[in-house]
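Let's practice the habit of predicting before peeking. Look at the sequence and jot down your guess about where helices and strands might fall. Then scroll down.
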Amino acid sequence: MLSEKQKMLADITVVLPVVIAGVLTTVGAYIGTPTVLSAVGFTKAGVTVGSMAAAVQTPATAAGGFFALCQSAGVLGLAASTKAAISAVAGAVVSVAAYVWPWSLLL
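Done guessing? Here is the structure:
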């Protein structure tokens, strides 16, 4: 039978990786979202020639579609609330994935 201390240590070994993964993902997404948009070709000057964004742009790109939203974010920047929402969702998804991942397979 496990003592209270052993149970607490077992709980921490499960929770700690989940918390760390969630926090790192949240911070990384908040800081990295504008960088990623720029890297794929959505810049303040418009779509960069020869970029991934230029490769997927079509004459039939719909207003209000995902491409248009990314272009708008590239040109105007993202509001802090939008970056926070993206970060929160990314952090939550990674936290859940870290919790359900069979870490015992790696040990």
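How did you do? The radius of gyration is 20 Å.
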